[in-house]
Amino acid sequence: xxxxxxxxxxxxxxxxxxxxxxxxxxxxxxxxxxxxxxxxxxxxxxxxxxxxxxxxxxxxxxxxxxxxxxxxxxxxxxxxxxxxxxxxxxxxxxxxxxxxxxxxxxxxxxxxxxxxxxxxxxxxxxxxxxxxxxxxxxxxxxxxxxxxxxxxxxxxxxxxxxxxxxxxxxxxxxxxxxxxxxxxxxxxxxxxxxxxxxxxxxxxxxxxxxxxxxxxxxxxxxxxxxxxxxxxxxxxxxxxxxxxxxxxxxxxxxxxxxxxxxxxxxxxxxxxxxxxxxxxxxxxxxxxxxxxxxxxxxxxxxxxxxxxxxxxxxxxxxxxxxxxxxxxxxxxxxxxxxxxxxxxx
Length: 345
Known about the structure:
The chain folds into three domains: 18-67, no CATH class; 116-252, Endonuclease Chain A (Endonuclease, Chain A, 2-Layer Sandwich), CATH 3.30.870.10; 267-322, Orthogonal Bundle (Arc Repressor Mutant, subunit A), CATH 1.10.10. It is built from 14 helices and eleven strands. The protein has helices at residues 2-8, 18-30, 43-46, 65-103, 107-112, 122-135, 151-156, 158-166, 183-192, 233-249, 267-277, 282-289, 293-307, 312-322; strands spanning 33-34, 50-53, 56-62, 116-120, 139-144, 170-176, 196-201, 208-211, 215-219, 226-230, 251-252. The strands form two sheets. The chain has an eight-stranded mixed β-sheet, with helices on both faces. A three-stranded antiparallel β-sheet has the order 1-3-2. Helix 12 packs across helix 13 (293-307).
């Protein structure tokens, strides 16, 4: 009964429902009401505004309005007192936290900046990079994904590179093999002289720039309009380790790419074959190697022709037989058409 009344009459004695008001007023005027009159308004019993007549349980007698008023005022007083106690506790807590705040020494935080900072917009990224360049004294490590570097990309950071070279800072850059064929990169390296050492790989990680092994910059979105500035020692050290391992695997820009050992198949086509064997689509392969999809498909066509494959399925088999899928070269002879080796870079 109590639950039923609470659902239908969600109120207190200070705001009776219309039906409850009528029944209680009638009980006060008459001194009592039949129990059945209170059936539609169980809230009156729940709020102790009506209670059974001890002389006749079929009747209900009202609690006097004066007692109800006293009860309401006492409840309001208790609520106000509780609010005052909570307010006092909150004020005490605020004063305590304020005292702790005055004890904090912000020197260390302001000297090095936050461990991770989001740079939103090219202007903020450039400003942060310029600041890191000015503070750099020893070494810069960079990973530059993509294919042939455009002149605009190289000239964008040229002023920083020249400033670093002027202070004797050493620079090491990692590129994809495709970047070897860009005249802009060759001109840039010639201009920088022995201040920059460059190596290349089939594919590299996303863009990374490390200054003095204390601050790193990485992209925060695909179009590179946002970046993360990282100063957390553990994160920076991890990125340095990744760079150093890639560096050991990379080939110096001044050294030729190794021969594949298979006549008519270039180093790039060997890389494409390995990625095809992993099940990657043409667009993914092109992005990872830093070439266009059109160029990637041209290499796949040459690869099919060289291996004598008439379909993609047969090409996969031929790639595995030739050991171009990353395994050791197979001793199974291939029936490669007797054609001259295509001139492929």
